[in-house]
C-alpha cells in the first residue's frame, strides 16, 4: 500500500534494518545513526528498529530511495522497511507459493519430467515479469504437460520442493500470535495443500490440474486463479475476519502478485521481478523470510522455531 503509506508523513514512523551479515548490518546502522536522531531497539542479532524523529516523507525521499531520493543502502546486503509504527503487526498473511514460500517454480519442475523445461521456464519467466497474460501463459504451459503420469507430481514434490529459509518460522509465529495465514498460488493444489501443511498455513488456494486414468490431460480447471483472484482472496479474508487490507501482509515475487501486494497494508517483494519490486512497500533481497517478522516488530525470542 505504497500510495497510502507515502501520505502518512506526520505519524510516528519506524525504520527496520535487517542485515545479511554482521559487517553490512553494522555499516547500515552507523549510516542511519549519522543521519537522524532516533530511539533504537534491537530485534535480533542483525536486526534493529529505529523510531524516527523525522517524518516518513522527509526521511524516505531524502535518504531511502523513494522516487526522487538516494538509496543509502544500495551497496550493502541489507533489507529494510519504513512504515508507520501503528498497526505494524498484521493479522492476515497472504503469501505466494512458488519462489516465495518454496524454492522452485513447480510447473517448471514438472516440465522437466516431461522433457520441456526449457520451453516452459521461458514462458514462466516472461509471465512473472508481466510480459505475458497469466491465464494464457498458464494454459500454454499446462498443455505441454499432456500425457505426464501423475506420479511425477509426487516425485517432484518429494525430490525438489523445499520451504525457503524462514518460511515456517514466519507462518507459525504469525499464527501463534493470532494471524490468519493463507497460501494463495497460481500454481496447483497438489503442491499448495502439502506446502500449506508443512509450513503451518490455515488455508490454501490454487489451480487444479486435470487428470484422467493416471495421466495429465494438459488442461487446468476453471476458473483460473491468477492476479485478480489473489487480490480477491485478500479482500475476502479481511472481510471474513472483520479486518481491512491495512491489517494484511502480502508477499510474492511475480507480476500476478502485484495487485495483492499493492492492496495490503504491508506489501513485500521477495526476491522479486523488477515490476513487483518497484511497487512494493518493502523488498527482501538479501535476507530470509523471518525479515517479515522483524518488519512487524517481532523480536527473535518471539519466533516460533
Structural domains: how many:
2
Order of helices and strands: HEHEEHEEHHHHHHEHEEEHEHEHEH
Radius of gyration: 20 Å
Which spans of ≥5 residues are poorly predicted at pLDDT below 50?
A: 3-9, 65-70
Structural class: alpha/beta
The CATH topology annotation of the largest domain reads as Rossmann fold
- CATH C-level name of the largest domain: Alpha Beta
Number of strands: 12
Distance between the termini: 29 Å
Can you tell me the overall shape? elongated
Strand content: 15-25%
Strand order of the largest sheet: 7-6-5-10-11-12
Major beta sheet, specifics? 6 strands, parallel
Q: Please state the second-level CATH architecture of the largest domain.
A: 3-Layer(aba) Sandwich
Output the CATH homologous superfamily of the largest domain.
Answer: HAD superfamily/HAD-like
Short structural description:
This protein has 305 residues and is of the alpha/beta class. The protein has 14 helices and 12 strands. The two termini are 29 Å apart.
Structure, described:
The protein is built from 14 helices and twelve strands. Helix 13 links the parallel strand 11 and strand 12 (282-284). It has helices at residues 2-6, 22-35, 56-63, 97-101, 106-113, 117-128, 134-143, 151-160, 167-176, 189-199, 227-241, 258-263, 274-277, 291-295; strands spanning 13-19, 38-44, 47-52, 78-84, 92-95, 180-188, 203-207, 209-212, 215-220, 248-252, 266-270, 282-284. It has two domains: 1-86, Alpha-Beta Plaits; 88-103 and 163-305, 3-Layer(aba) Sandwich (Rossmann fold).
Characteristic terms for this protein:
alpha/beta, Alpha-Beta Plaits, four-stranded antiparallel beta sheet, six-stranded parallel beta sheet, 12 strands, 305 residues, Rossmann fold, 40% helix, single chain
Amino acid at each position: 500500500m505504497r500510495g497510502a503509506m507515502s501520505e502518512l508523513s506526520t505519524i510516528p514512523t519506524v525504520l527496520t534494518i535487517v542485515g545479511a551479515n554482521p559487517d553490512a548490518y553494522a555499516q547500515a546502522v552507523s549510516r542511519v545513526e549519522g543521519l537522524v536522531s532516533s530511539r533504537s531497539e534491537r530485534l535480533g542479532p542483525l536486526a534493529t528498529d529505529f523510531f524516527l524523529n523525522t517524518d516518513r516523507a522527509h526521511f524516505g525521499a531524502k535518504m531511502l530511495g523513494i522516487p526522487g531520493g538516494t538509496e543509502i543502502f544500495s551497496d550493502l546486503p541489507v533489507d529494510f522497511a519504513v512504515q508507520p509504527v501503528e498497526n505494524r503487526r498484521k493479522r492476515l498473511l497472504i503469501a505466494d507459493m512458488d519462489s516465495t514460500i518454496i524454492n522452485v517454480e513447480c510447473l517448471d519442475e514438472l516440465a522437466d519430467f516431461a522433457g520441456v523445461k526449457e520451453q516452459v521456464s521461458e514462458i514462466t519467466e516472461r509471465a512473472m515479469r508481466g510480459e505475458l497474460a497469466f491465464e494464457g501463459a498458464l494454459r500454454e504451459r499446462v498443455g505441454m504437460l499432456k500425457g505426464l503420469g501423475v506420479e511425477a507430481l509426487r516425485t517432484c514434490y518429494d525430490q525438489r520442493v523445499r520451504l525457503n529459509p524462514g518460511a515456517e518460522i514466519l507462518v507459525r509465529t504469525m499464527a501463534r500470535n493470532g494471524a490468519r495465514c493463507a497460501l494463495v498460488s497460481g500454481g496447483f493444489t497438489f503442491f499448495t495443500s502439502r506446502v500449506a501443511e508443512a509450513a503451518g498455513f490455515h488455508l490454501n488456494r490454487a489451480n487444479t490440474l486435470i487428470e484422467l486414468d493416471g495421466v495429465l490431460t494438459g488442461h487446468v480447471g476453471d476458473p483460473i486463479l491468477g492476479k485478480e483472484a489473489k487480490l480477491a482472496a485478500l479482500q475476502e479474508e479481511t472481510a471474513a475476519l472483520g479486518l481491512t487490507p491495512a491489517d494484511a501482509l502480502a508477499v510474492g515475487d511475480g507480476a500476478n502478485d502485484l495487485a495483492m501486494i499493492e492492496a495490503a497494508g504491508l506489501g513485500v517483494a521477495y526476491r522479486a521481478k523488477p515490476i513487483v519490486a518497484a511497487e512494493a512497500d518493502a523488498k527482501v533481497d538479501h535476507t530470509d523470510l523471518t525479515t517479515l517478522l522483524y518488519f512487524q516488530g517481532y523480536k527473535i525470542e518471539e519466533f516460533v522455531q
